[in-house]
Design a protein that fits this description.
Layout lengths: L2 H20 L2 H15 L8 E7 L6 H15 L10 E7 L3 E5 L7 H9 L10 H12 L15 E7 L8 H9 L2 E8 L4 H7 L4 H4 E4 L9 H8 L5 H4 L7 E4 L3 E4 L4 E3 L6 E3 L11 E5 L2 E5 L5 E2 L6 E2 L6 E8 L6 H16 L9 E7 L3 E5 L7 H9 L10 H12 L11 E8 L8 H9 L3 E7 L4 H7 L4 H4 E4 L5 H27 L1
Parallel strand pairs: 1-2, 1-4, 4-5, 5-6, 15-16, 15-18, 18-19, 19-20
Antiparallel strand pairs: 2-3, 7-8, 9-10, 11-12, 13-14, 16-17
Helix pairs in contact: 1-2, 3-4, 5-6, 11-12, 13-14
InterPro entries: cEGF, ECM_Assembly_Org, EGF, VWF_A, vWFA_dom_sf
Keywords: EGF-like domain, Glycoprotein, Repeat, Secreted, Signal
Pfam families: cEGF, VWA
Length: about 500
């Protein structure tokens, strides 16, 4: 028994004695059961479990230590022993370095110490080679894997922070075919497509991406429910669910109608504050539920979600989208959803509204021009194909490109058509924005400025058209993005309606 276990046992024994002196037997018995469960929370089935850890030079020393801490914390949910769960670990860079095999250690304490003793390789990223070693060596009986006829699940957990320098698709498929269940964890700017070629199906359970190494600890609760069995955390009352806890075989959090579960798997958010409600125009909370409403001049369609469009207010609309590294791949996908949500509210056709889009980072890239697509579906498909740039943030350069090129006739701009730009950014620009924003507005381009998170209010004011309260939108986090999307749609519709009325007045 380790010193830690002895200390825990002494505290528990002392506490139980005091409880027995002051509480009736039934209460004492319930508390005793709780403490025994808390001391050893996992009663999972035996596993053969191999960690496959990226130890490349792109991982900083302090981040490498965070990976070791993550592994040690995850070990707390494994019943480790030669007749229980066996744990092996290898790390890889340009070569594969096995740290210990499945039959090397028979206790959690020994495994923890071996993890603490690991040293950073700081070389290349040969992920495919590591998967091949895992399949051909780590899960052999000579290295401690139990025979296949014992039906012990074989689990490999791969943690990586970058693009492999070798191929992974074929060898990962071969490993999965051999009966190895693969969890793929990506940290930072990892290509989700590559993670999905590595991880087992369903990807929603086996493939996970976090923004940085500080967030990797958030996955502990995810894997706890997968690796632990035999305890109903809902009954214990320590599940942390904001609304309700449901025992399936694993306990999961559930939200009341009208709410949806946040990514942390525990807290809930009003559906109307997300992009998941399905309402084309407005989502309105209705007690414990919600309903969809349309802007003035629209009516709710038969599906009770979409709105029948009016066909006035033709415009040329150019999105200017921040693709800087501060955004992150996951949030970039939310921005793409935002763009498509706006597109869904527009009357797009050859004679109706035209849409173009540029993405910017250190450089500016035209994703598609105003004259390139003339249907909403083709535009949304183009948005879906966009690749995240993930570098610096030169908003001023993007505004210059929009002003000088995006509305030109060679890129599909039409004469005597309202010109509108929606600028989306999540932080301070590395260049000046005022000059080109001012030139664009002076030329008649209407600019809506949307900022999320660390976006600087003064920069947003310099970008947006006047009055700012009509053209500037800001939210503290991406969870509020659905809310400002609805406000923007409403404002764009009202502005189009006012312009239509003004044009009618001028013609009479």
């Amino acid at each position: 028994m380790t010193q830690h276990s002895i200390a825990v046992q002494w505290v528990c024994d002392s506490l139980l004695t005091k409880l027995h002196e002051h509480f009736v037997p039934s209460v004492f018995e319930n508390i005793t059961n709780f403490l025994l469960v808390a001391e050893n929370p996992c009663k999972a089935i035996p596993l053969d479990f191999v960690f496959v850890i990226d130890s490349s030079r792109s991982i900083r020393s302090n981040d490498y230590e965070k990976v070791k801490t993550f592994i040690i914390n995850l070990l707390q949910f494994l019943d480790i022993g030669h007749d229980a769960t066996r744990v092996g670990l290898l790390q890889y860079g340009s070569v594969v370095q096995p740290e210990f095999s499945l039959n090397t250690y028979g206790s959690r304490a020994e495994v923890e110490q071996a993890v603490k003793n690991m040293e950073h390789l700081a070389t290349g990223t040969m992920t495919g080679l590591a998967i091949q070693y895992t399949m051909e060596t780590a899960f052999t009986e000579d290295h401690g894997a139990r025979p296949l006829n014992m039906h012990i699940p074989r689990i490999a957990m791969i943690v990586t922070d970058g693009r492999p320098q070798d191929t992974v698709k074929e060898v990962a498929a071969e490993a999965r075919k051999a009966g190895i269940q693969i969890f793929a964890i990506g940290v930072g700017r990892v290509d989700m497509k590559i993670l999905k070629t590595i991880g087992s199906e369903p990807h929603s359970e086996h493939v996970h991406l976090v923004a940085n190494f500080s967030q990797i600890e958030s996955l502990i609760s995810v894997f706890q429910s997968k690796l632990c069995g035999g305890i109903d955390y809902c009954d214990l009352g320590i599940h942390g669910c904001e609304h309700s806890c449901i025992s399936l075989p694993d306990c999961v959090c559930k939200c009341r109608k009208g709410y949806t579960l946040r990514p942390d798997g525990k807290t809930c958010v009003d559906v109307c504050q997300t992009l998941e409600h399905g309402c084309e125009h407005q989502c309105v909370a209705n007690g414990s539920s919600y309903m969809c409403k349309c802007f003035e001049g629209f009516i709710l369609a038969e599906d009770k979600r979409s709105c029948k469009k009016c066909h006035d207010g033709v415009m040329d609309l150019v999105f200017v989208i921040d693709g800087s590294k501060s955004l992150g791949p996951a949030n970039f996908e939310l921005v793409k959803q935002f763009v498509n949500s706006i597109v869904d509210s527009l009357d797009i056709s050859r004679t109706g509204t035209h849409v173009g889009l540029i993405q910017y980072s250190t450089k500016v890239r035209t994703e598609f021009t105003l004259g390139q697509y003339v249907t909403g579906d083709s535009i949304k498909q183009a948005v879906g194909r966009m690749q995240y740039m993930g570098r610096g943030s030169r908003t001023g350069s993007a505004l210059r490109h929009m002003f000088e090129s995006s509305f030109s006739s060679r890129e599909g701009g039409r004469p005597n058509t309202q010109q509108v730009t929606i600028v989306f950014t999540d932080g301070r620009s590395q260049d000046d924005v005022s000059e080109w924003a001012s030139k664009a507005k002076s030329s008649g381009i209407t600019i809506y400025a949307l900022g999320i998170g660390k976006a600087i209010e003064q920069e947003l004011r310099e970008i947006a058209s006047e009055p700012n309260e009509m053209y500037l939108y800001y939210a503290e986090s991406f969870e509020k993005m659905g809310e400002i999307t609805q406000k923007l749609k409403s404002r764009m519709y009202m502005n189009k309606k006012l312009e239509s009325l003004e044009n009618q007045h001028l013609q009479t």
